[in-house]
Amino acid sequence: MALVQDDGKPDIFLTMTCNPKNLEILKELLPGQIAQDRPDLVARIFRAKLEDPKDQLFQKKILDTVRANIYVIEFQKRGLPHAHFLMILRPDDKMTNLDHYDNIVCAEIHDPAKYPKMHQLVVQHMMHGPCGHLRPSNPCMQGEPKIYGFRYPKQFNDKTSQAENSYPLYRRGNIGRDVNVRGNTLDNRWVVPYNPKLLMMFNCHINVKACSSITSVKYLFKYIYKDHDKQVMHIDPNEGQSVINEIKRFQDARYVSPGRQCGGFLDLRFLKFNLL
Length: 276
What we know:
By secondary structure, the protein is an alpha+beta fold. The chain contains eight helices and 13 strands. The protein has a domain of 188 residues. 25% of the residues lie in helices and 22% in strands.
């Protein structure tokens, strides 16, 4: 919160995920291997590829001038790394109107006739799920009974607007542009927000959200600085004993992913803060 006091509220929250189908990864795999079998290779290539978006964001100012930023690299349990960026823009570049939101964030499927490459990338990387009744087993389905963790599908919007909770509702026109994803027909309601320039440059899942509302500040900084995942587990070699020692019964543990042991910059979490 001291960062907000000094530099202002965060403006952009960006998540970039490693693409396991990158040619640099595929050409180094042995017959029968998949990307998750080579966490050392995946992590090194992701680390190298991460330098370019950092240069585009902070030096070439592709999303306007970033005054301060925080980024953290995480590893999924299946071994693929992803990076979260939280960026605070210069006061003169902050998003002050809905047109500015549209210049940075898009949540629509592009016309395949006019923009075939962009259409392909959106369908390949930026379509959520599907979840709900279309696919109840999707990882975003939580609790019992299963409910949508990320509230997809979103609602159609003819233009970007501000919700009651101060979060933006991005433009998602009901224009009848449907695509087939994992055997299901999806439309603009299922698009994960992205920036077209960044998506075209880096060919991976790269989620971009505007987060300049005061209600999102506390959540975002807690998300960036959260600790590693933990699990409470129980090992009882003397099962059936009459007296139970509840203190010795539980152990506080954490999982160690393959990426943690790859050397170099790699750890379960890697955090960096920059003031520009």
